[in-house]
Amino acid sequence: MINNIKNSKKLNISFLHYKNKSKFSILFCPGFNSDMFGKKAQEILSWCKNKKIECVLFDYSGHGKSSGNIKLLGIKDWISDTQLILKSVITKPTIVIGSSMGGWIALRVGIQNPKKIIGLIGIASAPDFTENLWHNILNKQQKMDIKYFGHTFISSKYNPQGYVISKKLLEDGKKSLLMKNKYINLKCPVKLIHGNLDEEVNIQNSFDILDKIRSNKAELTVIKNGDHRLSKPENLKTIISVLQNLKDELLLR
After folding, report:
1. Residues 145, 151 contacting (CB under 8 angstroms)
2. pTM for the whole thing?
3. Is 160 a residue whose pLDDT tops 80?
4. What CATH number does domain 2-11+22-30+40-128+177-252 carry, 3.40.50.10490, 3.20.20.70, 3.40.50.300, 3.40.50.1820?
């Protein structure tokens, strides 16, 4: 059953909540233009149900079942949406899992909630991806479109209609940069996962994150021949294995 909660902009944030009396919860943060019904999100929900662990999936404003115009929203809004779910829906210590842009958001939320976030998994994490968009992906015409019309479109092999890239997204990104910092101030266990054939987010991103994280319990799993989405059955199996290992590690503390 889909539930809704209003954010500070009075937009409905839709979420799925599998409730259980487990010691901790799992929160999944999807990627840009993705939602809670993606393969990774649903695989994690299925695993949680099997293990009887509380789990929350949700859609950022302007995504999926949630309301809002994506052209008028950005990273800061989606961090705020995640904080809303974390504080208003989940009452337990939490493992936060983020995919692509969701990895950026998960890292930010982890830093801001050190007492509540007890573990973090980043899948093809893409902190500061808006800077890469501006400097390396958008062409001159697309930049002009953003300047004069407030948005442009970029093509994607994952979406035939392409993705909307807005001025708001890029400006928000600049205010939420993470990798310019000397350290990523996380002390909980962190598990990073990245495919070595990822063409959208270079695997070097995860090595850089690993280098900056303060936690001594940080690891990177490289999936050979893995692409950006990591949604093939064997990729999902690896993600679940990493999650299982983190669960076991936390229960032993």
Report:
1. yes
2. 0.96
3. no
4. 3.40.50.1820
